[in-house]
Design goal:
heterodimer; A: mainly beta; Jelly Rolls; seven-stranded antiparallel beta sheet; five-stranded antiparallel beta sheet; 2 helices; 13 strands; B: mainly beta; six-stranded antiparallel beta sheet; disordered N terminus
Chain lengths: ~190, ~200
């Protein structure tokens, strides 16, 4: 009994899983042009109180042992990642936004209660700041936000990046015609240790 | 008594497995070990200047070449620390002559970067992944905005990389022709990147 537990624990703890959730995975290999559903093609506006990714910005690619873990733990129609195994997760993110108002990392348990790992990611110039500065309007109004956070999630727990300001837009990658090169502006990686 | 013994044993074993001493390979590629104050103890800063399309850590020039005796102008970044798998991994996976880091073991890596600016510049920095034929297979834009003097950009990415793949950082400009990255301020590293392979 004891030996079985040791082997089993060792196997589980050395199997790491990685999800790449990025704009490049939305495009099929045959598509050499941008093919986004929004009217502006490049920049997609964020809707207040929704999660980044809920406008089908991102696709997901999974690397790992498989089993109960797979690509679609990131749900592209609501922007939420769901943990299928309890464990320690490292989340890295990079977003290009025109102006950042409020952006939150929101983690919840399987019953929907917000976890203490939730936090504000960044605050930059408010989209409304330009009108507050009389003599010097803000002209340099884009910024990349990147970073990482580590949290423990029980099976069924979720996280996402919640937009708090509907004036924000997110920039997604382009693919050059005739090239295999993939370019990502915005995305998330999830690593389960 | 029997049940208590099993529970205690499992807990100890799990803790031991979860905290191995060598669960990662680690490289820190930065400006810190380049610094030798030497005959110029009054100086606090050195800059590396980059032009459009340059590979960070390779294509640059220093603004103070006459004082090369106090630092190594050929190496913006050097590697330190290497608790790696000695048979296959080493500090030389970062090559300052190419500005590329080569993967010796396929696996999941964490790349975290920090770059300190010494001027105001509108720039774009790309993290490029090259395959074993030196073809760029993926590009991640890690910075695309205006940075000002003393700005620091930091970030990280977890990524799966195959053996013999390489990665590099490239910088581009839309309105400026030069970006200045701080070398370091004495014992403090400003710019560089850290690589971790999860074993």
């Amino acid at each position: 009994m004891a030996s079985f537990d040791i082997i089993n624990a060792n196997r589980i703890n050395t199997q790491k899983s990685l999800w790449n959730i990025e704009d490049i995975y939305r495009l099929p290999n045959s598509d050499n042009l941008q093919n986004y559903s929004d009217s502006s093609r490049n920049d997609i506006g964020l809707t207040v109180n929704t999660y980044i990714g809920s406008s089908y910005l991102f696709g997901s690619n999974y690397t790992g042992p498989g089993g109960v873990e797979k690509n679609d733990q990131f749900t592209a129609n609501n922007g939420k990642f769901t943990a299928n195994l309890s464990g320690t997760y490292i989340v890295t993110y990079n977003f290009k936004l025109n102006i950042i108002g409020f952006l939150y990392f929101v983690a919840k348990d399987s019953t929907g209660n917000r976890l203490s790992a939730s936090h504000k990611l960044a605050y930059y110039n408010s989209p409304h700041a330009e009108s507050l500065i009389e003599d010097k309007p803000i002209s340099d109004n884009t910024i990349h936000v990147s970073g990482s956070t580590t949290l423990y999630l029980e099976k069924g727990g979720t996280f996402g990046f919640e937009c708090m300001d509907d004036h924000s837009e997110i920039t997604i990658g382009e693919r050059y015609t005739g090239s295999n090169d993939k370019i990502s502006y915005s995305g998330i990686t999830v690593l389960r240790l | 008594m029997y049940i208590v013994y099993i529970m205690s044993f499992d807990q100890l074993t799990t803790n031991y497995i979860n905290t191995p001493e060598s669960s990662v390979s680690y490289w820190d590629v930065c400006d810190l070990i380049d610094w030798n104050e030497g005959s110029d103890p009054g100086r606090w800063e050195i800059y590396a200047n980059y032009s459009n399309g340059n590979i960070i850590g390779k294509d640059y020039y220093t603004s103070d070449p006459d004082n090369s005796g106090t630092f190594d102008p050929s190496a913006h970044f050097l590697t330190r620390n290497e608790p790696v798998v000695q048979t296959t991994e080493n500090a030389d996976q970062w090559d300052k002559s190419t500005g590329q880091f080569t993967i010796n073991e396929s696996g999941i890596y964490d790349i975290s970067w920090r770059f300190g600016f010494g001027n105001t510049t509108t720039n774009q920095i790309k993290l490029e992944i090259l395959n074993d034929s030196d073809t760029v297979v993926s590009t991640y834009i890690i910075n695309d905005c205006v940075n000002q003097n003393k700005d620091m950009i930091v970030g990280s990415k977890n990524i799966y990389l195959e053996q013999n793949y390489k990665f590099q950082f490239k910088i581009f400009f839309t309105s400026n022709t030069v970006a200045r990255f701080k070398f370091n301020v004495r014992a403090t590293s400003y710019s560089g990147f850290t690589v971790v392979r999860y074993r």
